[in-house]
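Look over both lines:
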Amino acid sequence: MLNRFKPGLALTICTLLGLTVLIGLGTWQARKIGPKTDLLARIEAGLSAQPIALPVHLDDPSVLEFHRVTFKGQVLDRKPIKLFATNLSGKSGYHLYLPVLRQHGMTVMVNFGWVPFHQDPLPDLPVGQEVTITGVLRTSGTPGSMTPPNVPADNQWFTADVHEMAAHWGLRTKEYYHFRVFSDQRGAADALPQGGQVRVDIPNDHLQYAITWFGLAMTLLGVYIAFGFKRGRED
């Protein structure tokens, strides 16, 4: 039977190279399944857990990413930043950000919730008041490849970059935390702003990708074998 299998040297080399690449990609995706599953489990645990007191010092905000925290402070008298965003129902509008000053002198950028584009005037926010904020900690936003740049002078914001926000509000580097907090506060169904607008957009498609790459490898191997026998019969 082996006498009839004659794929040729060139095809064999190309097939081996292709199999190496495809199996390598499949293995790479398969190795990502466990860590991504663990990450999503940690996020779910953080979002469902009772809020913890926000530490005074937090050098690495990523350790509390997607964890619920609570703290007290005074809402500074600043013009709210309106960040272009959709709510959890997919409606377009803005997220409203204001700085909240804690007693020890550090400021937190707080997302007070979502309002629709047509909302004018903006709903009353607790400017100048002492408040207790409970919400979800998120690290500073980073723009995507297609995200327009922020234009602070025109109050046009597309990325929640806390450093740009702080500069816009006249805060110095040592006066603010390098993260933000999404307020959980919700009122009636039609109350504005709508709090609790944390979105978890972390896909876990690695199993599908792994199956795809391994499937392509099997297909390539099948084509190689079929062609080899066909060529052998013709010879």
Summary: The two ends are 13 Å apart (CA to CA).
